[in-house]
Amino acid sequence: MFIEYMAFVLFGLVFGSFCNVLIYRLPRNIPIGLSRSCCNNCGTEIRSFDNIPVISFLVLRGKCRACGSGISARYPIIEISTSFLWVLPLILGQPLLEAAFSALFTTALLVIAVADFECLIVPDSMVIAIAVLSIPGLAMQLPPHWLDRLIGAFAAGAFFYLLAVLSERILKKEGMGGGDIKLIAAGGLFLGWQLIALAIGLGAILALPAMILMRALLHKFNSDKQLPFAPPLAIAMVISHYFGTKMIHWYLFSAIGFIPIKS
Known about the structure:
The chain is mostly helical.
């Protein structure tokens, strides 16, 4: 088990480094894999030994080796966060194969959340990746049931698309962005209708404190500027994926006053 944990930690660090590339390049339509990473200030290509997750940042003391300009702390934070997302399903007791799918799912959500926070763009490629990750579950009939998955995708996606159209035509206001709607549909395909419904509710709850923080503390968004919904929604999807079933059961038992009988 120790070897499995260490392998997932290392995989997470490697994927985290790649996530930083995706977060920077996807919203800016920069091709992936056709050029090496370079310093955003001087343009010097980053050498392999300066591109080791977390370690290179510490060795370089957060500065470019060529020009000495500061390197954003976001890079090691994303790498460490991704490593945690990879080992989390093992900590929660998921089998290796299921844990790998969970890790890839949450990693894609991390890229989407940060890209939307920084650039107000939900990358279509990451949404497609989540949808593709759902296919093995459909083929192998893994829970949730395939019908739950299809209902989650089409019902949630169609509902919010309709709301967006009505908001624009009737209220003359921009509704939920198309990227958010596609993310909800892909999330519904991966989670099923019950868990995606829970994630949407949690996302709406988390959105309020997130907006307050972004406006009051970070000063990133003006009051008249569109706020990203993908970050709180992504967090809600992670919570729903790992703990949603227990949360739903707890709510149902509490709502009807049912107390399980201890054997």
